[in-house]
């Protein structure tokens, strides 16, 4: 499976912070926002990843992330000329996807849960259909909402409903089979002029192949696209790291634990940040946790 990290848009809900910098490059506690969805894709076992962003911001992502070799993965980069909806990413990357199954993560989403890697890898290994993740929220009208029947199967998916049928929001993480580009081509612009990811999901729902995994207690999903949620995300990461001593959203740690890089490679990566707490924690990881490569 290949992965797309969509980090485009103008970040208008975070102005003036995003007038001079991409939203996905803003800090969430001690790391750039983009590190969190990147880590999620890597936890799913995905090592071929395309970063899609605006013409102005893409050089900054290249500067930050490079070619991916420091994490034992491969990065490609593409421009999204204008923010015309999430499914547009599959059309931009059509030749790169080349008939493979593909996951997509939004650049402003953070997911944290015990055993998350197992759930992600299970979704990545499905041979057909699509898998999305749902999370209970207090304001479902802001999101794509999924409702369920009595057997727990997805019944409807609706984008930003005025009268939500449930409080289960679909998170910004999607796994699709090899037909995703063909399905994306069938999606028509909505009244607001964008290709809606909910319409793509509905195509899979209508044929009975959309699987919805519900994130329950012990899980956290944060959409850091508003000032309050950006601050909450930073506070959440700080709390977990300070109290539990575990890293959240560190591609270097994920790469090491997944066996993508060895201890010496992790030490070299950590050395470049050795004056920071993150660098010291990564160095400690390389010295105390057995090499998985």
Automatic annotation (TrEMBL):
Record carries keyword Transferase: yes
Entry-linked Pfam families: NTP_transferase
Domain (Nucleotidyl transferase) ranges: 2-238
Record-listed E.C. numbers: 2.7.7.24
Reaction catalysis annotation: dTTP + alpha-D-glucose 1-phosphate + H(+) = dTDP-alpha-D-glucose + diphosphate
EC category: transferase
UniProt-listed InterPro entries: G1P_thy_trans_s (IPR005907), NTP_transferase_dom (IPR005835), Nucleotide-diphossugar_trans (IPR029044)
UniProt keyword list: Magnesium, Metal-binding, Nucleotidyltransferase, Transferase
Organism superkingdom: Bacteria
GO MF term list: glucose-1-phosphate thymidylyltransferase activity
Database matches in Gene3D superfamilies: Spore Coat Polysaccharide Biosynthesis Protein SpsA, Chain A (3.90.550.10)
Key word Hydrolase present: no
CC cofactor: Mg(2+)
Family: Belongs to the glucose-1-phosphate thymidylyltransferase family.
Job of this protein: Catalyzes the formation of dTDP-glucose, from dTTP and glucose 1-phosphate, as well as its pyrophosphorolysis.
Identification of the protein by name: Glucose-1-phosphate thymidylyltransferase
Organism: Acetobacter thailandicus
Gene of this entry: rfbA
């Amino acid at each position: 499976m290949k992965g797309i990290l969509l980090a485009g848009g103008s970040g208008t809900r975070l102005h003036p912070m995003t007038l001079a910098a991409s939203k996905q490059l803003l800090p969430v506690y001690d790391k750039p926002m983009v590190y969190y969805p990147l880590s999620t894709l890597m936890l799913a076992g995905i090592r071929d990843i395309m970063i899609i962003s605006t013409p102005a911001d893409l050089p900054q992502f290249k500067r930050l992330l490079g070619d991916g070799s420091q994490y034992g993965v491969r990065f490609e980069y593409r421009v999204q000329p204008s923010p015309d909806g999430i499914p547009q990413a599959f059309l931009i990357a059509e030749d790169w996807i080349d008939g493979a199954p593909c996951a997509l993560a939004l650049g402003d989403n953070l997911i944290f849960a015990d055993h998350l890697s197992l759930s992600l890898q299970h979704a990545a290994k499905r041979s057909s259909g699509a898998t999305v993740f749902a999370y209970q929220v207090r304001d479902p009208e802001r999101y794509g909402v999924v409702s369920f029947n009595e057997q727990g199967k997805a019944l409807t998916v609706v984008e930003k409903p005025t009268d939500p049928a449930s409080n289960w929001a679909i998170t910004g993480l999607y796994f699709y089979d090899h037909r995703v580009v063909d399905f994306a081509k069938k999606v028509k612009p909505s009244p607001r002029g964008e290709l809606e990811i909910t319409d793509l999901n509905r195509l899979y729902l209508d044929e009975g192949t959309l699987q919805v995994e519900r994130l329950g207690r012990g899980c956290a999903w944060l959409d850091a696209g508003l000032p309050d949620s950006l601050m909450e995300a930073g506070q959440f990461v700080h709390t977990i790291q300070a109290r539990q001593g575990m890293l959240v959203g560190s591609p270097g740690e994920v790469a090491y634990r997944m066996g993508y890089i060895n201890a010496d490679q992790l030490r070299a990566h950590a050395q470049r940040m050795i004056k920071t707490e993150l660098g010291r924690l990564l160095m400690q990881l390389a010295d105390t946790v057995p090499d998985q490569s």
